[in-house]
């Protein structure tokens, strides 16, 4: 699969299906809510047009919202995450020297750096999502706890997917 | 003018971000109002079909448990039939004659969000309409808020907008039941008048005051009563009788006389 469009379309479909069919129906401890579909945004080429990045994030979020009947919720969180992505990439990696069209994947960054990159963006996404969903500061400690354990769990699943299906270092 | 465009172009990333974020938030906050969420149709046949196909596969793994649940419900209903002739004039059973029950399968359901929705496999074609009540075999479950041709979206009791009018079974006092967003097995009973006390194990049932649910459906039992915080009305914690985490089949309740009741109320209200 060298075609970058085809590759990303397949990823989009598989990640959305994984999210809405499997992960959205997972009721772990009543608190955990893994959101793994954002890996699609994490994996987009490093030099992608930034406005296109935002539009794709919006589209991805809306698709998840469409299935979950939560209009705008995932879209808002994913757009903010995509807005933060270029900055996070630049600040984490001093000299990333990505090839044109290259993904910020595990092959380029290595396990530790990719984990950091993923966890920061997952945390941003989950913070927005949970606060918008709960929409109250009454139980702020519980909300923060939910954000934290869900972020850890989402990152864990993302790392498993990346290790299983991502391109390795050659 | 040219400068304005070049400025807009320069900050297009930030401007686009603001636009997309605003659109998302408008969509989101519209869905947070119960009245507005009723006015746009949230169920749709495309996603319903996908969930339905997936659910068919998944269902094979829970057949045994479902079978047991149906057996238990059967037994419970048989026991009730035995009781019925003994007290034919009971107020609670008398009203239920005006209601028609439509069975449905749960396609998706969640308990770990602040606002949980249930997707079921019956829709307009099965004469389901918005604002019909939904119950499980053990108690109350939610209210239909969106209908497509073959699927419906149900607002679970585990939702910010869910506020059910209940009654204390032993003395008929009116209370309200809401969910505070934490534990999916526990609700909150509010607006308890101060002149009586609730005790652990007291049953809360539907009041029948709304046109949605018949009277006498179990909502849950009191877990423990909290001290009343404000001077006038107390509140207590309640164990839902419906296990939302294992919801597989539900019944949608059609109030056969809803139209007449609504018209009458409206007529009196207009006068």
Description:
The complex is a heterodimer of chains A (170) and B (271). Chain A is mainly alpha-helical and 170 residues long. Chain A contains seven helices and no strands. Chain A has one domain. The longest helix of chain A has 26 residues. In chain A, helix 3 runs antiparallel to helix 4. By secondary structure, chain B is of the alpha+beta class. Chain B has two domains: 130 residues, Thrombin, subunit H; 81 residues, Thrombin, subunit H. Chain B has a six-stranded antiparallel beta barrel. In chain B, strands 6-7-8-11-10-9 form a six-stranded antiparallel β-barrel. Chain B is globular and about 85 Å long. The mean pLDDT of chain B is 84. Chains A and B meet through helix 3, helix 4 and helix 6 of A and helix 2 and helix 4 of B.
Number of helices of chain A: 7
Placed side by side, the strands forming the largest sheet of chain B appear as 1-2-5-4-3-12
Summarize the biggest pleated sheet of chain B. 6 strands, antiparallel, barrel
Determine Rg of chain A (CA atoms, Å): 15 Å
Structural class by SSE content of chain B: alpha+beta
What's the number of domains of chain B? 2
The helix-and-strand class of chain A reads mainly alpha
Number of strands of chain B: 12
Strand content of chain A: under 5%
Q: What is the total domain count of chain A?
A: 1
Oligomer: heterodimer
Cα separation of the termini of chain A: 17 Å
- Low-confidence spans of chain B: pLDDT under 50, at least 5 residues? none
Topology of helices and strands:
The complex is a heterodimer of chains A (170) and B (271).
Chain A: H1 4-22, H2 39-42, H3 50-68, H4 73-92, H5 106-109, H6 111-134, H7 140-165
Chain B: H1 2-10, H2 12-31, H3 34-39, H4 45-59, H5 63-83, H6 91-95, E1 99-109, E2 117-120, E3 133-135, E4 140-147, E5 152-156, E6 164-168, E7 174-178, E8 186-193, E9 203-206, E10 218-225, E11 233-240, E12 249-255, H7 258-270
Antiparallel strand pairs in B: 1-2, 1-12, 2-5, 3-4, 3-12, 4-5, 6-7, 6-9, 7-8, 8-11, 9-10, 10-11
């Amino acid at each position: 699969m060298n075609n970058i469009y085809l590759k990303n379309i397949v990823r989009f479909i598989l990640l959305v299906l994984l999210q809405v069919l499997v992960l959205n129906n997972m009721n772990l401890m009543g608190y955990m809510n893994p959101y793994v579909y954002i890996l699609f945004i994490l994996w987009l080429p490093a030099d992608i047009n930034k406005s296109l990045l935002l539009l794709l994030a919006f589209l991805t979020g809306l698709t998840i919202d469409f299935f979950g009947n939560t209009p705008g919720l995932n879209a808002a969180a994913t757009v903010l995450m995509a807005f933060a992505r270029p900055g996070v990439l630049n600040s984490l990696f001093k000299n990333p020297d990505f090839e044109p069209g290259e993904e910020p994947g595990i092959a380029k960054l290595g396990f530790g750096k990719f984990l950091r990159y993923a966890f920061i963006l997952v945390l941003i996404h989950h913070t927005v999502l949970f606060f918008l969903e709960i929409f109250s500061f009454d139980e702020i400690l519980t909300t923060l706890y939910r954000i934290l354990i869900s972020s850890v769990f989402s990152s864990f699943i993302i790392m498993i997917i990346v290790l299983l299906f991502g391109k390795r270092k050659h | 003018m040219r400068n304005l465009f070049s400025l807009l172009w320069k900050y297009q990333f930030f401007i686009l971000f603001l636009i997309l974020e605003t659109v998302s938030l408008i969509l989101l906050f519209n869905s947070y109002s119960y009245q507005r969420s009723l006015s746009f149709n949230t169920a749709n046949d495309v996603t319903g079909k996908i969930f339905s196909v997936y659910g068919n596969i998944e269902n094979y793994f829970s057949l045994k448990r479902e079978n047991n649940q149906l057996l238990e419900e059967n037994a419970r209903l048989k026991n009730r039939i035995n009781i019925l002739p003994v007290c034919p004039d009971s107020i609670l059973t008398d009203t239920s004659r005006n209601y028609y029950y439509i069975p449905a399968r749960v396609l998706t359901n969640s308990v770990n969000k602040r606002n949980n929705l249930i997707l079921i496999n019956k829709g307009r074609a099965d004469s389901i309409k918005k604002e019909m009540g939904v119950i499980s075999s053990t108690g109350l479950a939610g209210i239909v808020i969106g209908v497509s041709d073959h699927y419906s979206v149900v607002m679970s009791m585990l939702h910010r907008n869910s506020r059910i009018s209940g009654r204390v079974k032993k003395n008929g006092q009116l209370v309200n039941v809401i969910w505070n967003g934490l534990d999916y097995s526990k609700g909150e009973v509010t607006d308890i008048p101060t002149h009586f006390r609730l005790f652990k194990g007291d049953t809360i049932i539907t009041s029948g005051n709304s046109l949605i649910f018949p009277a006498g459906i179990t909502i849950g039992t009191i877990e423990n009563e909290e001290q009343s915080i404000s001077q006038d009305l107390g509140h207590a914690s309640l164990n839902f009788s419906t296990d939302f985490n294992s919801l597989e089949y539900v019944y949608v309740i059609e109030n056969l006389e809803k139209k007449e009741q609504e018209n009458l109320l409206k007529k009196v209200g207009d006068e």
